[in-house]
């Protein structure tokens, strides 16, 4: 029998993901300054995920990407990251938010160019299958028949 989810938790005390990212190398090392605390999983949420995410100085949130099927939303709690999208760069500060509609093709990520941590809430739906494009890098993501994300090079070759 599965453990009963908690009623409430202190978000900053939730266990962080043991790995910074599911990306294969050489991309995994690029997000080592990111730490996600998967809050939605603690409550057994199935339709959407919620992460409390910290970016160390100089870190990026992800490779710049766009989802075909999954919506994403961020809300800045601390620090001043730069949001990089197809439209350019937008400085953000606490209290600001941004949303990324599935299928828009607008690739995005956050960059922490400051000497302080950035902390934000990240909310996304869990629609599967999804396809993720990365316009700046030789990587592409889809889902296998079991719903697990699979990374390949843009020409379809697997990573070693």
Provide structural commentary:
The chain has 160 residues and is mainly beta. The protein has a domain at 37-142: Sandwich (Jelly Rolls), CATH 2.60.120. 2% of the residues lie in helices and 35% in strands. It has one helix and twelve strands. The chain has one helix at residues 39-42, and strands at 34-38, 48-55, 66-67, 72-78, 82-85, 88-91, 97-100, 108-111, 118-125, 132-133, 140-143, 149-152. A five-stranded antiparallel β-sheet has the order 1-2-9-4-7. The protein has a four-stranded antiparallel β-sheet with strand order 3-10-11-12, with no helix packed on it. A hairpin with a 6-residue loop joins strand 10 (132-133) and strand 11 (140-143). The longest helix is centred in the N-terminal third of the chain and has 4 residues, at 39-42. The N and C termini lie far apart (38 Å).
How many strands, which pairing sense, and closed or not: the largest β-sheet? 5 strands, antiparallel
Shape: globular
State the CATH superfamily name of the domain at 37-142: Jelly Rolls
Q: How many helical stretches?
A: 1
Beta content: 35-45%
Q: How helical, in percent, are the residues?
A: under 10%
Low-confidence stretches: none
Number of DSSP strand runs: 12
Spatial order of strands in the largest sheet: 1-2-9-4-7
Q: For this structure, what is the CATH class of the domain at 37-142?
A: Mainly Beta
The secondary-structure element order is EHEEEEEEEEEEE
